[in-house]
From TrEMBL:
GO MF term set: RNA nuclease activity
Source superkingdom: Bacteria
Family matches, as InterPro entries: NYN (IPR021139)
Organism (species): Streptomyces albiflavescens
Segments forming domain NYN: 34-178
Record protein name field: NYN domain-containing protein
Length: 298
């Protein structure tokens, strides 16, 4: 009898030891998050909030700057987690990338997924793409948290699928001038909700005017000129804020906080006398020049 109890106790001890090892391994595994952006919702809601219209042709969206701002915000919210990537869902005729969608696809840590556009310019198949990606990533334990920027009720099934595999889904929304721009059933299903206001989107949305077109009609600066201006702005930024601010900024490379990125854009446009809105390649060179100068000083 005593021998049986001793053997049972030994087995329990071994089981507990194995369990503790497993828990220790789980604790070592870093959390991972991904950001899922329904571009149709983003353009409509941000356009109405900032420019007073949902018509994409009536305003410019600085997608690169906005994506970096979303990544920066996610870094704050999911402090002990790493970013897998940003998934950008949009529609296109015959699923052929537009120039803007191609520029977005070339950004680091961004994957563009395209549904179709029908004759009325309505997206088709985007919700199913979001569900497929959310479910697959959650099933393979590739993500622990998903930040979903969208509002369509059809996304409920995507949320439920991801949650079924243990992932937490956090709904991000855009402030509505009146009423709601996200379906209630979607709000009920998610694990948390967060709304971004006018101040968050204002730096990245600008209404198109005759003047804004004239601003881009000037002679396009060379990449070398833009890179040099980026370094100039970095030198000014560093002189004003000091090395402590630089130490805080460096871990975020290659991304810049939204406020810093917007200041860089405005300052550079003033020095160049040229609008960089919608110029994704030059915006990237500008940031490269900014970072290169800062890293050389550290």
């Amino acid at each position: 009898m005593n021998d049986d109890l001793a053997a049972l106790g030994a087995r329990i001890d071994r089981t507990n030891e194995l369990l503790q090892r497993m828990l220790a391994e789980v604790a070592k595994t870093p959390s991972t998050h991904a950001i899922f952006v329904d571009a149709g919702y983003l353009y409509a809601a941000a356009g109405r909030l900032v420019a007073g219209t949902e018509d994409r042709r009536s305003f410019d969206l600085d997608t690169e700057g906005l994506i970096e701002a979303l990544i920066d915000r996610a870094r704050t919210i999911f402090a002990d987690s790493r970013l897998l990537r940003v998934y950008w869902y949009d529609g296109a005729r015959r699923r052929i990338h537009t120039a803007e969608q191609q520029a977005i696809a070339e950004l680091p840590d961004v994957k563009v997924r395209l549904g179709n556009l029908n004759a009325n310019n309505q997206q088709k198949g985007v919700d199913s793409l979001i569900r497929s990606d959310l479910e697959s990533l959650a099933r393979h334990r590739a993500i622990s948290d998903a930040a979903l920027l969208g509002g369509d009720e059809d996304l409920v099934s995507a949320v439920e699928a991801a949650q079924g595999y243990g992932a937490r889904v956090h709904l991000w929304g855009i402030e509505a001038p009146e009423g709601r721009n996200q379906a209630e059933p979607l709000l009920w299903e998610v694990d948390s909700q967060r709304t971004f206001d006018l101040d968050f989107f204002k730096p990245y949305v600008s209404r198109r005017t005759a003047l804004s077109y004239d601003a881009t009609a000037a002679i396009r600066p060379t990449r070398e000129d833009v890179r040099f201006v980026g370094a100039q702005v970095a030198a000014k930024w560093l002189a004003a804020r000091g090395r402590e601010s630089l130490a805080e900024l460096l871990p975020g490379h290659p991304y810049l906080p939204g406020s810093v990125d917007q200041d860089l854009l405005v300052e550079a446009e003033g020095l160049l006398q040229y609008s960089l809105r919608g110029q994704a390649d030059l915006r990237r060179v500008l940031r490269d020049g900014f970072w290169e100068h800062l890293q050389a000083q550290y």
